[in-house]
Known about the structure:
Elements: H1 2-32, H2 42-51, H3 63-82, H4 98-118, H5 122-153, H6 158-167, H7 174-190, H8 209-212, H9 218-243, H10 254-280, H11 290-311
Helix pairs in contact: 1-3, 1-9, 1-10, 2-9, 3-4, 3-9, 4-5, 5-6, 5-7, 5-11, 7-9, 7-11, 9-10
Amino acid sequence: MSRAFSQLISILTPILLAPLLLGWVNQMRAWLSNRRGPGVLQPYRMLHKLFNKDSVMADTASSLFRFAPYAVFGSMLLANAIIPTLSTDLPLASAADAIALVGLFALARIFISLAAMDIGTAFGTLGARREMLVGFLAEPALLTVLFSASLIGQSTALPTIVEAVAHKHFAIYPSLVFAGMAFILVFLAENARVPVDNPATHLELTMIHEAMILEYSGRHLALMEWAASLKLFAYSTLGIALFLPWGIGQKATPSSLLLALPSLALKLALIGIVLALVETFSAKLRIFRVPEFLATAFLLGVIGMLTHILLGA
């Protein structure tokens, strides 16, 4: 019963904190641009407004278009549930495999891309093609990052990797340094952040993620926006689990999870500040430069794997 309650806490944490993380990043970007900003609670207000509005569907929308928001939201929620955010000893720990996690991200990408093309609008199809291009290049880079970390833990299970890294003597591992740089590039690309995409833009010819959800409204748009914040939260906690695992609990007790919450909140706040700094001082790349950007991430991930294999560090 205690383990089930602890798993419930670990699932509710991303549901409740993901919009707050997005609001924190947006607020930091506003402050760095010498603006007041909408406040960290603005994503909650937006979700409340959208859930209270009616959904308007195009006449050509199929059942896939209606089902996609629930599939994307469910995939992102399950991804957050298997990432060891607060503890490594949870009922879903056996399913927390790195390859399965990448599969969940790919499943959400497939559904949102198919839904964008389902209506038949030009901008939705354009965004879907760009999303698939980014995914095609980002997923191998993400796998190299996860494999670099798995070489240290001798397993692709995320809880095992977390425990292996957390229990080792503190040291700078060159393989993790290269993997960390690759993860940052993938993080920016997969979450449609600058320099790959600009979440604040409304220019259809430059949008990727926003172009795919232009036809959604009401509760369906709310689920898509919530899923996007959950994806940002999932990548943030995945980075914490791989590179900053100190503070993650080892027991599936409510008290252990509550003790891990302040550490998680501090790390997420720092990630939000770094992300806002990167986006403020970076310029958006042309879409034709994105393959080079992600190829660099893949190369860094491969270098990280080779460094561990050849040097054992």
